[in-house]
Description:
Layout: E1 30-33, H1 49-62, E2 66-68, H2 76-88, E3 101-107, H3 110-120, E4 126-133, H4 136-143, H5 147-163, E5 170-174, H6 181-194, E6 198-203, H7 210-223, E7 231-236, H8 243-252, E8 257-260, H9 274-288, H10 301-312, H11 333-341, H12 372-381, H13 388-402, H14 410-418, E9 428-436, E10 443-451, E11 456-463, H15 466-478, E12 482-491, E13 500-508, E14 515-516, E15 522-523, E16 527-533, H16 536-553
Helix pairs in contact: 1-2, 1-10, 2-3, 5-6, 7-8, 8-9, 15-16
Amino acid sequence: xxxxxxxxxxHPRSRPEYIPNHIPDPSYVxxxxxxLRDGEQSPGAAMTSDQKLGIARxxxxxxxxxxxxxFPSASQEDFNAVxxxxxxxxxxxxADGYVPVIAALCRCNEKxxxxxxxxxxxxxKPRLIPFIATSSIHMEYKLxxxxxxxxxxxxxxxxxxxxxxxxxxxxxxxxxxRSDTEFLYKILEEVIKAGATTLCxxxxxxxxxxxxxxxxxxxxxxNVPGVENAIISVHCHNDLGHATANTIQAxxxxxxxLEVTINGIGxxxxxxxxxxxxxxxxxxxxxxxxxxxxxxxxxxxxKTSRMVEECSGMYLQPHKALVGDNSFxxxxxxxxxxxxKHRGTYEIISPEDIGHERSNGANMVLxxxxxxxxxxxxxxxxGYELRDDELESVFRNFKAxxxxxxxxxxxDLKALVSDQVCHVEPIxxxxxxxxxxxxxGSSTASVKLVTVHGSTHVACSVGVGPVDAAYKAIDLIxxxxxxxxxxxxxxxxxxxxxxxxxxxxxxxENNKTLTxxxxxNFVYPTFSGTGEGVDVVVSSVEAYLTALNKMLDFxx
Length: 556
């Protein structure tokens, strides 16, 4: 049964029946979200299994066609997360029969493919994505294989995938954008014959220009025998800032599956952003893109963006298209005058279309006399739905802040909320911190931590500054050797009583957390943490402890 596309913020046409290698409506574009796999490959964006499950459920609310749930062979933790998503999210049909396809990435070898199939086969609609590189530079230096060897591996592994019982196979062509055209056509022709139902054409290094990438997709559609029996998919990276443009151009010339990530997170400069691609099709599909449409319920975009932002620790620039804090703010007097007369003068998209709510209390000032009801109401207007215990924790922190500041702004509230959601159960908590610093001698810090079992531990240390001293004291308690890869400190509000947001990225300095990279090498997982507060040293310590707790919670 074909699920119907919701009309609140989405295209009014029905979602076509799902057939792996065919879309009954030629104007319908499938959306594959790879936030949980490619997005998590961003340095410092590692997420727990529970966080991934929560995001997968939110992707269902968006109505994505395919969820790329992860790379099961990377680690036991990844395998467990993919399997859990396949079992729980991949079997949750709605009243119209909609249930997402659950996909898993695997290299072109039998062990990877078998492992991935074991993780996703529990879903109602499982898919495997075996991939191999086809560019000369990858075949020579990474794979150390000839064209003939790569071609045979591709054919054999697609056939092996089908032999396991998987009839929805997306063959991934890594670095397709830099591959020899004739070889690319040949390998695509042969994997279709072997049983591939979707062809993923990847601009792995984000090197192509939009017209160039469009010509490449058009060439595949025109020159690959049997391509009418498969779906052309595109996977674009953003190294030159063209990922969204390349993706849209590909859709215009025949690609009918677009691979994206929430907020555009991903390797290096990231991937094509879900919100940009989907809203481009919604806003311009009928007028400029030949009637293309998706099945996405766009009113869930903002909430999903915030969820991914908080769970991954990858915070958005204020002017990020559509979901940045400044996306629908207007300061210029000329703009404001136009908006007061007609919002269409400076807004091409209604904020409500992606999940913003017009606030009736926009001029209401929250301060030390405000109660729980006022706080809860404003948080709901900002898009936050908190449990009672989370609200109580935010309220305590809110009252403490309101005692120090004359006015608590929306940005302050977002900072207060961010550490209450998408967090792991802390193994160590800060109980007390005392620091001494100045121009005479080294800084010193005394730290008291409390374990999850309630025992307290105290340590003192010296450092080149109060933050360095505090971190060294924590290391003495936790007894872990940690390398700080990144430390940033930014004020998120104005004034001398501004909240400071600290972000830190760390890794363990031993071999206990090694995991496989996609190229078969080993890498160290990295873990990020954030902290907010008017005291920059305390916020720095909170960020460090958040990252440490993630690292200690990580299961090899």
